[in-house]
Amino acid sequence: MKATETSPLRQNMLREMKDYLMIALGMIMYGIGWTVFLLPNDITTGGVPGIASIVYFATGFPVQYTYFGINVLLLLLAIRILGWKFSIKTIFAVFTLTFFLSVIQKLTEGLVLLDDQPFMACVIGASFCGGGIGIAFSANGSTGGTDIIAAIINKYRDITLGRVMLICDLIIISSSYFVLQDWEKVVYGYVTLYICSFVLDQVVNSARQSVQFFIISDKYEEIGHHINKYPHRGVTVIHASGFYTGHEVKMLFVLAKKSESPIIFRLIKDIDPKAFVSQSAVIGVYGEGFDKIKVK
Predict the structure, then answer these.
(1) In this structure, which topology does domain 210-282 adopt according to CATH?
(2) What pTM did the predictor assign?
(3) What is the residue extent of each domain of the chain?
(4) Distance in angstroms (rounded) separating the CA atoms of residues 199 and 250
């Protein structure tokens, strides 16, 4: 009985630990893309890192300090609107990225990759940055900056995170011309922004994919109870009848995250290996446990 009571708490702790590890991984990826590929090639990114890059190009002031200072102000806004759960993980992400920016720059001091291939530098750097932000968002975190603004708008409007960031960051990248005095570098910044936004959407949307199951089994009650407990998904019983046999059957209807599919298949196989199961992808699922309904 005690194990049953503590298992949900343990599952929540493991889930939270996984989120923080994924956020840390995302920040390391972002730090590598920014300081190893973009910054040494004078390529400006978007958001607060873009502002920090422009300040660095103009004055040589370390990017991590500018990045951290601006995010302190934005985090106060995030706490008020997005709540502590989002903001705590964002604070963790900001501190983690600030720390790893210093570490990565020390480890790669004097190293300039793809010095004569700025386009490849912006492609690889933007892919690292977009993937890092996407991983952080999927774990309910953020790198701060315009990510916070994008998350706030995405909370109330059905606009993709990447598109919001794309619109917000165009001005920042365009303003880098006043420091770099090179339109080619500005164009590379636009390319970086587009690739970063595209990779971000791919990572976030793939993590939010949902599936639906139709399950026909004589042991439908046992299967339904197990799905209710873990992965903790709702189950609807549909009364049906076989057209050929005329037998009355009970069919289970389940909506779940794509990542939960192996768990559901495993428990069905353990309970009733002869069960008839149909799985299909769905475009969108809205409601408790899934995405919130957003109306423009």
Answers:
(1) Alpha-Beta Plaits (3.30.70)
(2) 0.67
(3) 2-207, 210-282
(4) 42
* Confidence band of 159 (pLDDT split at 50, 70, 90): low
- Which pLDDT value is given to residue 5? 44
DSSP class per residue in 43-101: ---SHHHHHHHHHHHHH---HHHHHHHHHHHHHHHHHHHT-HHHHHHHHHHHHHHHHHH
Give the CA angle between residues 201, 205, 207 to the nearest 5°: 125
Evaluate if residue 3 carries a pLDDT over 60: no
Maximum distance among all Cα pairs of the chain, rounded to whole angstroms: 80
Residues 6+ apart with CB under 8 A from 186: 44, 173, 174, 176, 177, 180
Q: Contact at 8 Å (CB) between 238 and 250?
A: yes
* pLDDT of res. 8: 65
Q: Dig out the tokens for 33 from the structure.
A: 């893309």
> How many residues appear in the chain?
296
